[in-house]
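2024-03-11 09:14:02 INFO worker-7 job=invfold-0412 stage=load source=structure_tokens
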């Protein structure tokens, strides 16, 4: 048999095998991915998982090509200085204004005390500077919340060490009310893990509701949420805006937030009244969901309820008690 004839016969054989395989596949159906909308391998926002917009920030010093560069802790009375560097190491100087500012700087000690929300000034050398209170020693986390021109919102985080005797404090117990001078703020709403929740914080003064709150950063309040175990920074969005004809100037300020996991969180509400910005602080515990689990070999189920760690500020299984140092 000639070579050409051998090749033709081989090709015919291969075609026959391939056709048979197709027939079997048609009978059995696909063994890998599926287009069934109900399939468990298909994830949608309705699955209860946090969306990309609610992904916690502040855990990385570099993200999406940008880096937060802190100068060492300043001497007493000197401003804190920092830069946002692009992927080439060049200081970023063009930003998109968000919540009335080009950059929001959050400074908080690792035990979630000494919270400060400030707005630095950008110098001609591309460095931001702002006075901060670092009179208490310890390790601080510095968050830079900004939108690069033409980009998307980013929150970068870096540690700052202040020398001296460190006196870490336990996270306060969860509570529905907090005080800020002669103001009382009440929290209403339940935060769940992996799904958007709505919370309303209502401001009262000397027992009377405050109905003339003043705009602050484009809203009647600004809320920062930090996860106690690792200080992950959550994106929290206020509902409505001053002057839209529907949003009241108090007493309630409503926010939408997504907790990415169970555990303890610390909320910091900034609000302005009579020209002064005040901060109310809350601890919120996000519980584990109650799920059914199999017991024995008979297929019966029993409820299993898990609770987060009882150590303030710690995630389950993380019991070192040193707030992540």
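2024-03-11 09:14:09 INFO worker-7 stage=emit residues=325
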């Amino acid at each position: 048999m000639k070579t050409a004839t051998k090749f033709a016969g081989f090709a015919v054989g291969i075609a026959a095998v391939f056709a048979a395989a197709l027939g079997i596949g048609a009978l059995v159906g696909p063994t890998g991915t599926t287009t069934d909308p109900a399939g468990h391998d298909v994830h949608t926002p309705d699955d209860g998982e946090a969306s990309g917009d609610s992904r916690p920030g502040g855990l990385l010093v570099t993200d999406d090509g940008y880096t937060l560069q802190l100068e060492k802790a300043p001497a007493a009375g000197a401003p804190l200085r920092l830069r946002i560097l692009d992927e080439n190491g060049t200081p970023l100087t063009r930003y998109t204004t968000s919540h009335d500012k080009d950059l929001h700087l959050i400074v908080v000690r690792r035990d979630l005390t000494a919270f400060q929300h400030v707005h630095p000034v950008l110098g001609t050398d591309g460095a931001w500077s702002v006075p901060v209170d670092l009179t208490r020693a310890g390790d601080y986390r510095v968050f830079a919340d900004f939108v690069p021109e033409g980009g998307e919102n980013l929150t970068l985080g870096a540690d700052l060490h202040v020398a001296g005797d460190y006196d870490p404090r336990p996270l306060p117990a969860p509570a529905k009310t907090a005080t800020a001078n002669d103001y009382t703020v009440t929290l209403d709403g339940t935060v769940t893990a992996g799904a958007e929740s709505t919370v309303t914080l209502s401001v009262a003064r000397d027992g009377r509701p405050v109905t003339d709150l003043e705009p602050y950063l484009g809203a009647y309040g600004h809320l920062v949420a930090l996860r106690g175990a690792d200080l992950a920074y959550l994106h929290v969005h206020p509902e409505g805006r001053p002057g839209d004809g529907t949003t009241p100037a108090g007493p309630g300020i409503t926010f939408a937030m997504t907790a990415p996991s169970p555990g303890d969180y610390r909320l910091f509400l900034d609000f302005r009244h009579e020209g002064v910005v005040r901060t109310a602080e809350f601890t919120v515990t996000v519980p584990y969901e109650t799920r059914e689990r199999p017991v024995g070999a008979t297929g019966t189920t029993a409820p299993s309820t898990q609770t987060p760690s009882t150590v303030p500020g710690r995630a389950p299984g993380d019991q070192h008690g040193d707030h992540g140092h």
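2024-03-11 09:14:09 INFO worker-7 stage=report msg="The radius of gyration is 27 Å."
2024-03-11 09:14:10 INFO worker-7 job finished
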